[in-house]
Design goal:
Elements (H helix, E strand, L loop, with lengths): L4 E9 L3 H14 L4 E5 L15 E2 L10 H20 L3 E3 L2 E5 L5 H13 L4 E4 L1 H7 L7 E5 L3 E3 L1 H14 L3 E4 L3 E7 L2 E6 L4 E9 L5 H7 L6 E13 L10 E4 L11 E4 L5 E4 L3 E2 L12 H9 L1 H21 L2 H11 L8 E14 L9 E5 L2 E6 L4 H16 L9
Parallel strand pairs: 1-2, 1-12, 2-9, 5-14, 12-20
Antiparallel strand pairs: 3-8, 4-8, 5-7, 6-7, 10-11, 11-12, 13-16, 13-17, 13-18, 14-15, 15-16, 19-20
Helix pairs in contact: 1-5, 1-10, 2-10
Length: 407
């Protein structure tokens, strides 16, 4: 039975940072507050937006000219200004990226080149300057990335919800989209609880469920979402005093993850992580197996091709994730004095990573359109950093879709 029916100029599916930033930007661009943000959870930022390292990335890592490079740089600046104007905790602390052995120096040089090309403030450090910034870090080479910061992302999400609602919009939680179909000059949108809405435009920012939402909207997404679990570790006791800000390893260039790193959060706590291993459930934070998700993964040819392409790297990550001792060893390569006894398991996250049909990890942000819909199909890190800029991109695409007459 249909519980209720209503109209909205725009429906945004997903109340993470990207969805909320999109709702705000769409309202500003179209001059309307008639926007409904829906989420199947009981509140905003319940998944990737609230389960990450809390870092505002500079744009160092990304290929010059890519959407990630452009939107990370613009988004971080916008995020810093947004937080400053609203008294949301944000601290520009900088970070060091360190090469632990000579074999990593060419990759470190490539990061320096990319950072300079992307307009990021980055400096090469000798051992003396590294000791002044992070006295307990040891490396054969290092970069200092000045613009990197830490931020209260859940606080940003709450602020965006408030702004969308003050402008006349609405956040509706507990609504899981089951179908969206074009009818005349709009979309009829149905939800699992019987709610039905009608809209001119639907924006899919569903993160871990984005490919499924796209399919339910009648689209044929060219990518599949594969969930990667990231385990975090709290660094306690005297070991926490060994880290001033952010300490990152040189990442494996074959893998779109940054490696296990050390972060002093906006609250002042130190944590390490995340690892990156295949999850048998898109929301299986407790390491359980979601039967539907697991079967879908097993039947997914793209995943098998991915496994053939990256099996060595994946196996190494799996060993690391299953071994606290291995995580401790990785951290001690960065900070030799760190005591493994000071490490405690912390709340994990799960990253939505898009994979192409031929088994390639999609490295850049990915957007798609279908009739009266805009889909965000790949928005992993640095999407939280870039959310305000991504929202502007989405708003521009929404502005090209004709609105329903008579509204």
């Amino acid at each position: 039975m249909t519980r209720r029916s209503a109209d909205a100029a725009v429906i945004v599916v997903g109340a993470g940072l990207v969805g909320l930033a999109a709702a705000r930007a769409i309202g500003e661009r179209l001059g309307t507050g008639d926007i409904v943000v829906v989420d199947k959870e009981d509140g905003p930022a319940r998944h990737q937006s609230g389960r990450n390292s809390g870092v505002a990335h500079s744009g160092l890592y990304y290929a010059p000219g890519s959407a990630k490079a452009d939107l990370a740089v613009r988004g971080r600046a916008a995020l810093e200004q947004y937080c400053s104007e609203r008294s949301i905790p944000y601290r520009t602390c900088g970070k060091v990226v360190v090469a632990s052995d000579a074999a990593q120096l060419p990759a470190l040089a490539e990061l320096e080149r990319r950072g300079a090309a992307n307009g990021v403030r980055v400096e090469r450090l000798d051992s003396e300057r590294l000791r002044r910034i992070e006295p307990h870090v040891r490396a054969v080479g290092a970069l200092h990335v000045l613009d990197t910061g830490v931020v209260d992302y859940p606080g940003v999400a709450r602020s965006l919800v408030g702004e969308v609602c003050v402008a006349g919009g609405e956040l509706r939680v507990g609504l899981e989209l089951t179908q969206a179909a074009v009818r005349g000059d709009g979309l009829d949108v149905a939800f699992a609880d019987g709610t039905r809405l009608r809209t001119s435009v639907l924006v899919n920012c569903a993160g871990l469920q984005s490919d499924r939402v796209a399919a339910r909207c009648g689209a044929e997404p060219s990518v599949h979402i594969v969930p990667f679990r990231g385990d975090y570790t709290d660094v306690t006791g005297s070991s926490a005093e060994l880290v001033r800000a952010l300490v990152y390893p040189v990442p494996d260039p074959r893998w779109p993850f940054l490696g296990v790193h050390l972060t002093r959060s906006i609250e002042g706590h130190v944590h390490a992580g995340p690892t990156a291993v295949l999850a048998l459930g898109r929301e299986a934070y407790d390491r359980s197996v979601d039967r539907t998700d697991a079967l879908a993964l097993l039947r997914n040819r793209a995943l098998w091709r991915l496994g053939l392409r990256y099996w060595r790297t994946g196996l190494a990550e799996l060993r690391r994730a299953r071994s606290p001792e291995r995580v401790a060893e990785d951290l001690q390569r960065l900070v030799p004095e760190l005591d493994a006894a000071d490490l405690r398991p912390a709340a994990p996250g799960i990253r939505a990573q898009a994979v192409s049909a031929d088994g390639r990890l999609i490295d850049d942000f990915a957007f798609a359109v279908s009739p009266r819909c805009v889909h965000v199909l790949n928005a992993p890190s640095p999407a939280a950093t870039a959310a305000l800029a991504i929202g502007q991109v989405i708003a521009g695409r929404v502005d090209t879709i004709p609105r329903r007459t008579g509204r």
